[in-house]
Amino acid sequence: MADQDLTKGEQTRQTILDSAVSRFGMDGFRATSVADVARDAGVSGSAVYAYFPNKEALFFAALDQDAAKVIDLGISALITTAGRQQWREELMLTLVGSLQTHPLAQRVLSGLEPDVTARVLDIPALNELRKGLAGRLHRDQLDGTVRSDIDPVVMANGAVTIIMCLLVGVVQFGDAGVSLYGPDVLAVLDAALDTPD
Questions:
Q1: Domain ranges, residue 140
Q2: Based on the number of CB atoms within 10 Å of its own CB, is 158 exposed (0-12), middle (13-18) or buried (19 or more)?
Q3: Model pTM?
């Protein structure tokens, strides 16, 4: 939805969320106050509470938004990239690359917000990634490029788990892990998905 399609209240809420993503991404949950976010958004502190009942709800909404933007880019790569090998590589490269411009998602995956680490698994956009992966695997099954005897939903759930682990590893240990272990991960996925000769 374009900004001009939003009501004034929706625009205010979005401005608050954008400010929260930036501020929480830069300073973290503990060091950021609702007043900081309000000041950055150009609204009063009471305006923030009109949309979010407390600081924790604001933080989770900001995290969900930032993570959704990362995952949306990955889903786009998943849908638009052609061959099986290409979409898997493009998906990972897109997700890793997009973390550079999404500070809150990167901060949480870095382990700098240990109190909310478990919350990462409940990010709504991960369900969209699972659905996108399952759909892509099903299409590839119909094309004969993925084994027909696997359950696309189960494989998608497993793939999202692997993807999350890789993203945490990349953020915490750097790109060296991708170049070192990335080909092995793709080889394991190949073995699991390959159609029998």
A1: 3-193
A2: middle
A3: 0.84
